[in-house]
Amino acid sequence: MSRARACAAIAALLLGTAHRVPAQSVTAWRDSTLALTARYSALRDSIGRADSTLAEAGRRGDLAMASTLPQRQFAARLLEDFAELRQRRFGEALPDDRGFRISVRTFESRSVFERFDGRDRNPGKVQLTGLSGSGRDVERYERVDRVYSILVQAYTEMMFESLPVTLRKWLEFRPPLEMEETNRRYVAMYSVATGVGRAERGCIDSHIADCAYVLRLRESTDSAPGGTYPPFVRADLLLFALDRGGDSAWIRFRNAGDVLPIEALAAASRLEPDSLILAWRRDILGLRPTEGVLDGRGLLLALGWGALFLAGALGVSKWV
Amino acid sequence: MGLIVKRIGFAAAVILALLLPLVQDRTRSDGAEFVESASSARLGELQRRLTSARFRWTVLAERDAALALAETLAPGSAPPVLLRGFPSGAHSALAVEETARWWRALGEPAFQVKAAMVVYNDKAYSNGLRNWNSYAGTVIERASGAVACLALLPGTHHPDGRVHVMKSQVSSTMAPCLLLARFGLPGNGMGSWLDKTRWSFAESNGWLVRPRSFVEADGRPPWGPRFEALYLESTFRGPLPFGVYLMAAELSPPYMLGAPALHCLLGDAAACAAGVTSMADVSSRPNELPTDITLPLHRWQAAGSGILDHQSLATWWVSDLIRDQGTEKFVAFWKSDLSLEEGFRAAYGQGLGEWTRDWARRQWNAGGGRTEPRRQVLLGVTLRPSWPLLVLFWSLVALVVASGVARRRQVTV
Q: Tell me, what's the pLDDT at B134?
């Protein structure tokens, strides 16, 4: 009897759980969505903050760097590098009077086998704060070996956004400060030296008016001057002007107000507009390679090795 | 004995050399621990459940609202664009223009359909989070006297009053309504296939505006690949140097289309027919959603990722059939109460498989994007006949030159 009851109970249980009841109710799904949204938001925010695990890794001037414990030494080095770059390019300028905060959740490179398993490898967090950090707030999620790049990009982006509209329109994009300087300058030189427009060639031939036109600093009097340089080259001019201007150059550039870009650049560099353009032109064209691709030594080496291989190939048939 | 030991040792070394690169490096050389981030996994799981719940909430709420709206529509008139849940003053020029454009392209509707384009406020369902997979589809209600067809799509409200909608979604959600307005209710054969497949293969309005010679979707494959070659390429680019994976992907048969599609492209008409009819059979995935709405493919199709599984048919199959064979024969096919295959033969005088094979080959041969394998590669030997001949010829030349040089340089003692 008891066995029959047990079987009946199991059967009832199976019948009761075999089919899910279709949920066609709007209200039920709305409630479910709202409950899940709340849980999702709470979890996401807790992951994003994770402030309690952060410890200060270093402080320099108005900058402070914090990180999770395993990343502390790395974060301290980052702070040194970042502070140096910031001092050179922006001086003491901040993107916001109330400061800023850049948080980067980090992970290490994952192999192809681990890429889709939804896990982070050695997760951590690095947080750079300026002043009170209550002004601009940026959050990123990136591989640990790219954190320096991300810090520089985020900071430059904020500084770019703090510029007056006229200067932002002229630049179009933030300066690519995360690039290694030699590479950046060579890319700019390549753009300048290989331009084929009439004004672009004119600039190479020392026509200052053409240079001003292709840098979008002045209008051209030519009826068909051709194209202008890409934003990358204009960013190079700005960085050149900041270098020439020395201390507080960025502040002078930004505080020039809603003036023509050439005036803001002149203020930053403390040079006359035409002098600045000429100096930049001389500098960038000075990077052009002066030697041919193949020098005499290389030629001799190639011929020597070629002859050696030929002699070997012919000689080997003696033993075949 | 010593030789045998050496040979075994050499074989073991070779096997080790082959297997070593396959061992996963779970720990770093400096002893750093592999840490699992349970939080990320939990977040992903919550997001999946949230997306699913939100999708159902949206579908059910908007479907009920649309059916209530259907009562107010006049049969046969041009579909109005109705904005739901937006502040007053909101407007969507794109939705109005696109809806009117498609209705104009249809001409005078042959059947009285109560049609409308309903744009709902996507943000009403967001609860402060970014929306994932908002529902865009069509409600087809046949219970009452006149057929009601309401296209539903999400819109985003901008501060200046504009409501942004996706142009492609206006077109795809209108597609069932345009077919119903031109051809009326389908017969049992076609109707059953369309309902089971949730109208997923009748999403194109190309039959209204495009010439017969036009190839849809830039020659994308006639069956949807399970994964993208480019996606895999980027995944495997790291460990395989010199573009080895890309080369292998381009030279390998397109298995991602599934074996039935490969057979079809190689000329097997039965496989081609099965590739169409089987779409109704794989629609067994329970979704607990009303049957009078169309659904995106991934919401109803049973998950089949094996090489022997049927993959999804192109969404423009119905449209291409009309464009290729004309509307007169299509009406007979559409209205047929026979099974899909029998109805096709009765209307067109040829098998469903034969036509689909020609269509699929045309679609396949028209492609050639970098994200797909090479078009010439299907199955079997892919060498052109001239290649082995050329290899033999050049080998012979090399042998003659080498032996000639050796003979001249021979030293006799």
A: 86
Considering the domain architecture, whether residues B66 and B165 belong to the same structural domain is answered as yes
- Chain B residues within 8 A of A120 when measuring between CB atoms: 35, 37, 40
Which of A69-78, A109-118, B164-173 is least confident? A109-118
**Higher pLDDT pick, B130 / B398:** B398
Structural domain includes residue B199: no
Closest chain A C-alpha to B131 CA, distance in angstroms: 11
Residue B304 lies in a domain: yes
A118 close to B (CB below 8 A): yes
What are the domain boundaries of chain A? 52-162, 181-285
Answer yes or no: pTM beyond 0.90.
no
Judge: B41–A118 Cβ closer than 8 Å, yes or no: yes
Q: Which residue of A has its CA nearest to B235?
A: A112
Contacts of B238 in chain A (CB under 8 A): 111-112
Q: Which residues of B touch A73 (CB under 8 A)?
A: none
Is the same domain home to B179 and B50? yes
Closest by Cβ to A32, choosing from B40, B53, B290: B53
**Residue B14 falls inside a structural domain:** no
Is residue A66 within 8 Å of A57, Cβ to Cβ? yes
For residue A112, the chain B residues in CB contact (below 8 A) are 235-236, 238-239
Nearest by CB: B43 against A33, A47, A113:
A47
* B349 within domain boundaries: yes
* B225 and B361 part of one domain: yes
Q: Is A46 on the interface with B (CB under 8 A)?
A: yes
Report percent pLDDT > 70 for chain A.
82
In terms of CA atoms, which chain B residue is nearest residue A23? B288
How many Å lie between the alpha carbon of A122 and the closest alpha carbon of chain B?
5
Q: Are residues B340 and B257 in the same domain?
A: yes
**What is the model's pLDDT at position B290?**
85
Domain range for B293 is 216-366
The gap between the terminal CA atoms of chain B, to the nearest Å, is 40
Q: Whole-angstrom Cα distance, residue B244 to residue B232?
A: 12
Same domain, B155 and B289: no
Q: Does A169 touch chain B (CB under 8 A)?
A: no
DSSP state string for B344-403: HHHHHSS-HHHHHHHHHHHHHHH---TTS--TT--SS----THHHHHHHHHHHHHHHHHH
Would you say the ipTM is above 0.90?
no
> What is the SS3 assignment for A270?
coil
Q: What pLDDT does B159 receive?
A: 84
**Per-residue pLDDT tens over the stretch B337-372:** 999 999 999 999 999 999 999 999 888 888 754 445
CA-wise closest residue to A128 among A178, A70, A54, A69: A54
| Closest to A92 measured CA to CA, from A159, A27, A168 | A159
Total structural domains within chain B? 2
- The size of the A-B interface in CB pairs under 8 A is 97
> Of A114, A54, A146, which Cα lies nearest the Cα of B34?
A114
B153 with B290, same domain: the answer is no
End-to-end CA distance of chain A: 96
- Residues B78, B162, single domain; the answer is yes
Q: Which chain B residues have a beta carbon less than 8 Å from that of A318?
A: 409, 411
